[in-house]
Amino acid sequence: MAIERTFAIIKPDAVGRGLAAEILARIQKAGFSILAIKSLRMSKGEAEGFYAVHRARPFFGELTQFMSSGKSVVMVLEAENAIGKWRDTMGATDPSKAAPGTIRRDLGTSIQNNCTHGSDATETAAFEIAYFFSGHELV
């Protein structure tokens, strides 16, 4: 398999509950290289731009409000099959349906407060990485 990059977020619910270090440890234990990382608080407009693909969905307002409600940690991860590997490490969106040992199963509290975000495809990863990181930040 080829080495690829994916985008990941430790969401405001996890940062607010002091879980960032635990999630970062799991990322490293899973064998990812963290190419770029920063802590930030998205504005409502930044969240709306990032999640624009969901604009017509009924949860869009609630999602963008939540994602702009506190600090997040955004990252670029690299590994073989990074997109699939990160999605497996996170677990299903709904923590109650996630596999045992996954981040969302162990640390998430609801579909919205599920601690993490990850790209779902190569094209999505490219958009999401570029949304938060310029080329010179990706070393």
Provide tags for this entry.
single chain, 139 residues, alpha+beta
Characterization of the model:
By secondary structure, the chain is an alpha+beta fold. The chain has one domain: Alpha-Beta Plaits (2-Layer Sandwich), CATH 3.30.70. Helix content is 40%, strand content 20%. The chain has 7 helices and 4 strands. It has helices at residues 12-16, 20-29, 44-50, 60-67, 82-90, 103-107, 122-132; strands at 3-10, 33-40, 72-80, 116-118. It has a 4-stranded antiparallel beta sheet, sandwiched between helices. Helix 3 crosses helix 4. It is globular. The mean pLDDT is 97.
Total of DSSP H or I helical runs spanning 4+ residues: 7
Q: How would you describe the oligomerization state of the chains in this entry?
A: single chain
* Overall morphology: globular
Largest sheet: 4 strands, antiparallel
Helix content: 25-40%
Tell me how many strands there are: 4
Number of domains: 1
CATH class, named: Alpha Beta
Let me know the CATH homologous superfamily: Nucleoside diphosphate kinase-like domain
| Mean pLDDT over the residues | 97
Order of helices and strands: EHHEHHEHHEH
Write the layout of secondary structure elements.
Elements: E1 3-10, H1 12-16, H2 20-29, E2 33-40, H3 44-50, H4 60-67, E3 72-80, H5 82-90, H6 103-107, E4 116-118, H7 122-132
Antiparallel strand pairs: 1-3, 1-4, 2-3
In short:
Helix content is 40%, strand content 20%.
